[in-house]
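ok, trying the design again with the full structure, not the truncated one.
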């Protein structure tokens, strides 16, 4: 396992964003991750493809057994690294969801870069996988 999402503190620096499935009942998860009408393997495949299309982004680790992936994306000018960890969750009946924790490794403020990344990835997932059980509105 790359990251224990249960241990992510509710109070975080403003250079991080956490998106969680609605059933996690985390009041600090913002935005909420939808439940997709796709098996977890398909959700993982599409998310890895979406991340690979982003500039200066590469896959650090894909742990199929623990259903997690970790990516690094570097800022355009100063090349500061951000880390994004994704946990994929099967929901049964050809449905799945995910949690995304994106954060800057350095600094305190990130001008909402990590939040926009999470929202962009969730939106792209919705466009690739079609309608979800709950709508995502960035």
């Amino acid at each position: 396992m790359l990251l224990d999402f249960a241990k992510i503190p509710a109070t975080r620096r403003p250079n991080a964003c956490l998106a969680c499935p609605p059933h996690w009942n985390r009041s600090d998860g913002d935005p909420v991750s939808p439940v997709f009408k796709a098996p977890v393997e398909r959700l993982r495949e599409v998310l890895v493809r979406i991340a690979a299309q982003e500039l200066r982004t590469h896959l650090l680790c894909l742990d199929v057994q623990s259903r997690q992936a970790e990516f690094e994306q570097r800022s355009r000018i100063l090349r500061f690294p951000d880390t994004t960890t994704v946990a994929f969750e099967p929901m049964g009946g050809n449905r799945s969801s995910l949690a995304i924790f994106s954060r800057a490794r350095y600094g305190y403020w990130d001008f909402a870069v990590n939040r926009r990344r999470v929202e962009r990835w969730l939106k792209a997932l919705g466009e690739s996988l079609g309608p979800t059980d709950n709508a995502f509105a960035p």
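Keeping the full-length input from now on. The radius of gyration is 14 Å.
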